[in-house]
TrEMBL record:
This is Inosine monophosphate dehydrogenase. InterPro entries: Aldolase_TIM (IPR013785), NMO (IPR004136). Keywords: Flavoprotein, FMN, Oxidoreductase. Pfam families: NMO. The keyword Oxidoreductase applies. GO terms for molecular function: nitronate monooxygenase activity. The lineage of its organism: Eukaryota, Fungi, Dikarya, Basidiomycota, Agaricomycotina. It comes from Rhizopogon vinicolor AM-OR11-026.
Length: 329
């Protein structure tokens, strides 16, 4: 059994956290992950309103007696969601672990900490990580350039970013981006992380609520099957390389570039939702990390986490054998 600051902080067996994922973080998945020993995470903004979140929290609690959390991501929006309402309802329902991400998380962090909750904040730079540390978060999720979704604009890969985190941070941190197996978990621990955050790998499990066609498409894909959109708009996002995302990239690369209005219909969130519901991988944009190259099957969450735990233990044990004690003269 691998014991880290993360497993002790959260009361979990395996140092693996499910990242928040729009349209994916619904009760069956986080409940299965928590039952398997990790930390499942409900995605608040997948729900239309705070009361709907209350319902799915209760559904998740009915499916597991293990710890689970709620993700609230603050992103630029024409019509901002009721972030305060989502946070209030989750606290009222007894949720004690939250993942925050995005712009200006200070008010949410303050609210959660004032209610005795644990906060994991996701960030893509050491600068932002240290800022969140000063705000009083309990753990940081350090997101390398390999990640799905928004990697920031500095393009720093996990290898360097995690080593920098070891130099700079005083609180536990976990590795996020491009991790899908026990080898990635062992590597993250070697880089000073207390565990890992996974999103793309959990999408491709039996309990994931997305269409089977999309899961099979992920298994058939490789590490080269993602692309970045919104690069020219200063809001980079890594998504699956398909017909729609390639159209967006082409519009951004044309002379004079593109404005958001030029791509708005192509990147509409409802189209990504339909991808997961109907199973057409080319209908809209959907996020995926370069971990696609490591995904070869569609296991249950129990099978996946047990395998990761076993692999990591074997790798760590094998690395110990590399250290030879000098014979005494």
């Amino acid at each position: 059994m691998i014991t880290t600051a993360l497993t002790e902080l959260l009361g979990i067996r395996v140092p693996v956290v499910q990242g928040g994922m729009q349209w994916v973080g619904k009760p069956p998945l986080p409940a299965a992950i928590s039952n398997a020993g990790g930390l499942g995470m409900i995605t608040a903004l997948t729900q239309p309103n705070p009361e709907a979140l209350r319902t799915v929290i209760r559904e998740t609690r009915a499916a597991t007696d293990k710890p689970f959390g709620v993700n609230i991501t603050i992103l630029p929006s024409i019509n901002p969601p009721d972030y305060e309402g989502f946070a209030r309802v989750a606290v009222e329902e007894g949720v004690k672990i939250f993942e925050t991400a995005g712009n200006n998380p200070g008010p949410l962090i303050k609210f959660f900490k004032s209610n005795g909750c644990l906060v994991i904040h996701k960030c893509t730079t050491i600068r932002h990580a240290k800022s969140a540390e000063r705000m009083g978060v309990d753990c940081l999720s350090v997101d390398g350039f390999e990640c799905a979704g928004h990697p920031g604009e500095e393009d720093i890969g996990g290898l360097v970013l995690l080593a920098r985190a070891a130099q700079e941070l005083k609180i536990p941190y976990i590795a996020s981006g491009g991790i899908a197996d026990g080898r990635g978990l062992a590597a993250a621990l070697a880089l000073g992380a207390a565990g890992v955050n996974m999103g793309t790998r959990f999408m491709c499990t039996v309990e994931s609520p997305i269409h089977q066609n999309i899961k099979e498409k992920m298994v058939a894909s490789g590490e080269q099957d993602t692309t970045h959109i919104f690069r020219t708009l200063g809001n980079t996002s890594r998504v699956f390389k398909n017909t729609v995302s390639q159209q967006v990239v082409a519009l951004e690369r044309r002379p004079g570039g593109a404005k958001f209005e030029d791509v708005r219909d192509l990147v509409a969130g409802v189209r990504g939702k339909v991808v997961f519901e109907k199973g057409d991988p080319d209908y809209g944009v959907w996020t995926a990390s370069v971990a696609l190259g490591l995904i070869k099957d569609i296991p249950t969450c129990e099978e996946l986490l047990s395998r990761m735990e076993r692999e990591a233990e074997e790798i760590i044990g094998g690395m110990n054998k590399l250290v030879k004690t000098k014979a005494k003269l």
